[in-house]
Recover the amino acids of this structure.
């Protein structure tokens, strides 16, 4: 039997409990495995469970940000491959601070808006966009980054992460962390889309998809003792269904919060994969220019846990120039 | 007290309707005050007119102008309140003041009996406080402004009421979250309340319990007399009371008065002096104590009854009204206070943790202008601005101090300046505010994880909001990690000439308790200097 992805597992649970439907699915994921199954039963990660003839990773290059975003997704088989009608979607951009898009401190609003539109076109029941900023208020960052306006324009909903929304979950595959506090809605959503921007980062070298997931956990300071394994452990539970890397602009210094245009490089790239490790590895090496993806410690740790492929020579990559 | 046969006679009077108008006005004013409170909660913007109550508050306005020797046009609206008072008495106290409304609502059985036992001279207290307050302000010392009723309520609501309410609501919602069927309700509540009404981050205030209990004590004092605060303590009430001595319109006892005592029985302020039945001249309304609530006019059974009429002669001087001697003693006490506060050690050596809001440059000018009103605390989105207890000495009690471990100064926020009604915190353009040096961070290498223990951490560098970070990292080194292995590690260093002292690093430092990176008053440069970064 094909290993289950997180989304498929949820769908099965939802179907099995019929009337209780969505509530039961949430119940299954209640804190500390209140329901016997939950994430603990998640099958071994298998990054290439989907795919087949489709490219494993798509890289779209061009100046029209919305167009390259759509192209990167279309190249993977379209959003309907990831979002089924009636499903709930959580999109996690990087909105760590309140800076305008040209500073490359936060995910490009046009990329986020294009993804919202694609999810809605795939008949998602709801598309919620959220992050928890590191040095400002959510309202300030949502507005200052331009993401709030873009998401509203596309028909999605910005969600202010609520103090009541956290719960402790077991991390069955965790090597260092065996349980942690996650944002309940991100775990319970049918589809989780990780939308990082590529930035230099003090303690983790580069922040891309893996690091971006830290916005969905509480007590982030507690991860710094072993940041790379911590990120890999939380990624093993969150398992984004799709990772879309914004490399329209990248930040090469004074990351992750930026603020100086001198630190920004224009790349005009959006790349996407169902495999967070492959997406991060590509962004780290072929976009940012590192020699080895493994020199970003958390990418190496995620690969060691089998969360995806770090060796890009063995995956099918489709390039699009618009 | 005789009920009198006239009590049952049908009465055609406008007083009950006007009393309802008073109640509605009170409700509206309290609702507006509450709305402005919630509108400001971590909204990062001072709501337009968010400090409107202070602008109409003559104590806050004119005393601050006196203390700072500055004409503050933003506070000149208080002239309206003065005029209203000169026409119709303490309408502010009885119809508008939100603290007055709250104090008037909390009533205890037996308070009237208790009040009759209180020495009438206790009412003098508020005048003494007023005179001492003004005398101190004339010397530039605003310490007693902590007694302004609007400031008192704003401070208490911000530091105790809203944080407490948020704690309770969040706790209830968290409990409901555990019940599957209720999750939808919680999510809907959160979607609508969190942000617009409830703070996104639970606010914490060092003095929440203390300030909350102080207000509770104030309300409990109503057991001794209705509206204890308004009768005995409120310096704004005292100021308006003195003006009301000569107000044009006052409740006047009618010719038909047989001293039945109903008016005195209805009066919550004990403002009606009644020597005894039979002597109609003995029943008098003391206009300086009257808050124009109209209860006496409604209660009066006379035909014609009491009226609200022109009174050209100053109201009679009461035994508890301040005499010349009282004025002099109170003024002398105020000057004594100034002298004692001036001898405090905080004037010689500033507390290193005295970090003022951005734009404040001269501590002396700031103290002379700051109203202690709490408007800046109300709008600070991180609750980083706390009412000071010791940092500014007794002189600066309850003035705003940035306390970075409890909340930092948001790089993209400038809410406190526009919220400040007196300009003690200047209203700066964001780009200017972002370069104001309010403090400087230093790293304690004996506590910092990478420096002291070889544990990798760079949170302070990551969160530094400056475009050219004031916290940088040393080149990476391989170090032994104590468990036999090695770690690749960088260590944080502060570039003091770039640092503006916002405190984001101190707030986010993952150590328990005291942070390993701490912001202190800028050393070697004056606060308000412009950062090099």
């Amino acid at each position: 039997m094909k290993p289950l992805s997180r989304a498929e597992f949820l769908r099965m649970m939802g179907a099995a409990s019929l009337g209780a439907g969505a509530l039961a699915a949430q119940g299954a994921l209640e804190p500390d495995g209140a329901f016997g199954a939950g994430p603990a039963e998640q099958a071994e990660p298998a990054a290439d469970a989907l795919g087949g003839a489709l490219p494993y990773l798509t890289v779209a290059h061009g100046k029209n940000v919305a167009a390259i975003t759509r192209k990167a997704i279309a190249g993977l088989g379209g959003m309907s491959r990831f979002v089924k009608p009636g499903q709930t979607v959580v999109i996690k951009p990087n909105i760590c601070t309140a800076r305008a898009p040209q500073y490359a401190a936060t995910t490009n609003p046009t990329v986020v808006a294009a993804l919202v539109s694609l999810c809605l076109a795939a008949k998602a029941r709801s598309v919620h966009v959220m992050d928890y900023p590191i040095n400002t208020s959510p309202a300030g960052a949502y507005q200052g980054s331009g993401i709030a306006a873009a998401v509203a324009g596309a028909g999605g909903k910005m969600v202010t992460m609520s103090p009541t929304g956290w719960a402790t979950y077991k991390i069955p595959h965790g090597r260092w962390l065996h349980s942690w506090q996650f944002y309940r809605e991100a775990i319970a959503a049918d589809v989780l889309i990780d939308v990082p921007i590529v930035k230099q980062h003090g303690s983790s070298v580069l922040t891309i998809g893996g690091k971006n997931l830290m916005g969905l956990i509480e007590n982030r300071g507690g991860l710094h003792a072993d940041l790379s394994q911590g990120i890999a452990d939380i990624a093993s539970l969150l398992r984004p269904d799709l990772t879309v890397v914004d490399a329209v602009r990248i930040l090469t210094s004074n990351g992750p919060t930026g603020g100086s245009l001198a630190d920004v490089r224009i790349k005009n790239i959006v790349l996407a994969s169902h495999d967070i490790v492959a997406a991060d590895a590509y962004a780290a090496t072929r976009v940012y220019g590192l020699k080895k993806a493994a020199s970003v410690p958390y990418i190496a740790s995620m690969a060691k846990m089998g969360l995806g492929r770090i060796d890009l020579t063995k995956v099918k990559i489709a390039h699009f120039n618009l | 007290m005789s009920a009198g046969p006239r009590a049952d006679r049908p009465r055609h009077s406008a007083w009950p309707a006007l009393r309802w108008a008073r109640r509605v006005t009170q409700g509206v004013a309290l609702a507006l005050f509450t709305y402005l409170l919630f509108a400001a909660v971590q909204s990062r913007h001072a709501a337009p007119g968010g400090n409107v109550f202070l602008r109409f508050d003559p104590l806050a306005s004119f005393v601050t102008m006196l203390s700072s020797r500055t004409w503050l046009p933003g506070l000149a609206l208080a002239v309206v309140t003065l005029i209203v008072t000169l026409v119709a008495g303490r309408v502010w106290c009885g119809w508008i003041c939100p603290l007055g409304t709250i104090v008037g609502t909390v009533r205890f059985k037996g308070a009237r009996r208790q009040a009759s036992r209180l020495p009438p001279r206790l009412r003098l207290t508020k005048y003494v406080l007023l005179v001492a307050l003004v005398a101190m302000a004339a010397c530039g010392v605003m310490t007693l402004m902590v007694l302004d009723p609007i400031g008192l309520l704003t401070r208490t609501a911000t530091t105790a009421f809203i944080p407490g309410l948020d704690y309770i609501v969040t706790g209830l919602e968290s409990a409901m979250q555990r019940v599957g069927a209720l999750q939808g309700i919680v999510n809907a509540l959160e979607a609508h309340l969190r942000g617009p009404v409830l703070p996104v981050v639970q606010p914490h205030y060092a003095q929440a319990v203390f300030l909350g209990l102080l207000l509770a004590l104030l309300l409990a004092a109503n057991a001794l007399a209705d509206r204890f605060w308004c009768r005995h303590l409120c310096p704004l009430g005292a100021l308006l009371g003195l003006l009301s001595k000569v107000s044009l319109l006052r409740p006047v006892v009618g010719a038909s008065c047989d001293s039945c005592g109903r008016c005195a029985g209805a009066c919550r302020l004990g403002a009606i002096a009644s020597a005894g039945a039979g002597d109609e001249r003995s029943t008098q309304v003391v206009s300086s104590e009257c808050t124009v609530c109209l209860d006496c006019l409604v209660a009066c059974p006379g035909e014609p009854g009491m009226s609200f009429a022109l009174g050209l002669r100053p109201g009679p001087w009461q035994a508890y009204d301040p005499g010349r001697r009282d004025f002099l003693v109170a003024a002398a006490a105020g000057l004594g206070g100034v002298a004692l506060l001036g001898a405090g050690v905080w004037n010689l050596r500033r507390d290193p943790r005295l970090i003022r809001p951005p734009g404040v440059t001269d501590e002396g000018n700031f103290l002379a202008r700051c109203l202690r009103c709490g408007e800046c605390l109300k709008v600070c989105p991180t609750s980083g601005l706390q009412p000071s207890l010791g940092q500014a000495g007794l002189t600066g009690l309850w003035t705003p101090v940035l306390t970075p471990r409890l909340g930092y100064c948001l790089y993209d926020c400038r809410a406190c300046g526009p919220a400040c009604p007196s300009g003690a915190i200047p209203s700066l353009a964001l780009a200017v505010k972002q370069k104001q040096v309010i403090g400087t961070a230093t790293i304690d290498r004996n506590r910092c994880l990478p420096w002291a223990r070889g544990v990798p951490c760079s949170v302070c560098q990551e969160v530094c909001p400056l475009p050219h970070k004031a916290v940088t990292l040393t080149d990476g080194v391989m170090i032994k990690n104590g468990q036999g292995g090695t770690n690749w590690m960088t260590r944080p260093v502060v570039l003091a000439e770039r640092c503006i002292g916002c405190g984001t690093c101190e707030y986010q430092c993952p150590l328990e308790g005291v942070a390993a990176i701490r912001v202190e008053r800028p050393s070697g440069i004056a606060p308000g200097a412009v950062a090099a970064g």
